[in-house]
Design brief:
Layout lengths: L5 E7 L5 H16 L12 H8 L5 E8 L2 E9 L20 E6 L8 H13 L5 E6 L5 H10 L3 E4 L7 E6 L4
Antiparallel strand pairs: 1-2, 2-3, 3-4, 5-7, 6-7
Helix pairs in contact: 1-2
Length: 174
């Protein structure tokens, strides 16, 4: 929209402000626990979201802000046991490292998720495989798989292997 100031903020989860955690919590509720996703289970409380954000797992948060408000996000995890930053994919031993990508409904269809994903690939795609998971029981599973494939990800597990979980990988070697 005209006049909106857009900013992609990248920061470790342990540096999130309380306001950012609250906005992320609302985004998670809307993207993963309401409407067509209401059957995904009980949504987390704000306290559970805070605990998750400030927990032991360190991740980078990719936050797209419009006029200072978080409207899209993704989390990028690194396997701290693998200092070379490589994620090995063998059979079911998959290290998912791109998680919880979502955009508020009123901001969708503006290429926000695409820009976040392309920035993650730009920042880390030359250093390691990027792996993400799409849950097969969601109404938009096929649409999400097409979206990730359009960014260069390939399906590595799913369909015949496990119709409820799909894993896609972007590799610097491909």
């Amino acid at each position: 929209m005209v006049g909106e100031i857009e900013e992609l903020v990248i920061k470790p989860n342990i540096e999130l402000t309380e306001n950012e955690v609250e906005e992320i919590h609302q985004l998670v509720i809307e993207c993963f626990f309401t409407g067509e996703f209401a059957e995904q289970g009980k949504p987390p409380t704000l306290e559970e979201t805070k605990m998750g954000m400030m927990g032991l797992d360190i991740c980078l948060m990719y936050l797209m802000k419009r006029d200072g408000k978080i409207v899209g996000m993704a989390e990028l995890y690194n396997d701290l046991n693998k200092p070379d930053l490589k994620f090995v994919l063998t059979n079911k031993e998959i290290g998912e490292n791109v998680c919880s990508m979502g955009v508020l409904k009123t901001y969708r269809r503006r290429r926000i998720a695409t820009r976040i994903l392309l920035k993650i690939i730009e920042d880390f795609g030359g250093q390691m495989d990027l792996v993400l998971n799409v849950h097969g029981q969601r109404p938009n599973t096929e649409k999400l798989i097409r979206f990730y494939k359009s960014a260069g990800f390939t399906l590595v597990l799913g369909i015949e292997d496990d119709p409820e979980e799909y894993y896609l990988r972007w590799s610097p070697l491909e």
